[in-house]
Amino acid sequence: MSDIWFKAGEATVLAADGQATDAMPEVLIGSVRGPVGQAFASMMGQVQGHTRMFVVRDLNQMVRPATMMTTKATIHTAEYVELLGGVVQAAMGDAIVDCVSEGIIPKDQVDELAMIIMVWLDPRCAEDPNLDKADLYRTNYEATKLAISRALKGEPAIDELIANRKSVKHYALEGVIEY
């Protein structure tokens, strides 16, 4: 049985200039026999506007550990679904397989683990005729890999969070509060 019970991580990788392809996945990974496995199984149904799907690299190439992805933004268009189930899903799938091949996720535990990834795909991407799909792939690949690594390493550690409490603030607080 896996000793990875309940690990959470997130990452942000910023888009190239002029793109809305920022990636901000939030990852939950743990044993199929624990709370993550239960949450994974309970996601098998659909919720309007927030599609849930297995992460696959391509047709007939579901990743291991089994991973369910869902959106943070409400889906309104077929173009959005195409990007989510195409470039974004493929990037995440490649990142997961690379995490296994690089030892970030223990290879001998892939069938004992499940992952849930909440995906940020800016709705503007589906409307952008100049969307850089390569940048969309890059940001989602890098952020997924980083989020998984951070989850399994327990990063950021609480000591880092405490040390940065007065020096790092959320970008949305600029001009709102002063430390």
Automatic annotation (TrEMBL):
Keywords: Lyase. Residues 9-171 form the Formaldehyde-activating enzyme domain. NCBIfam families: one_C_fae. This is Formaldehyde-activating enzyme. It comes from Xanthobacter aminoxidans. The gene is fae.
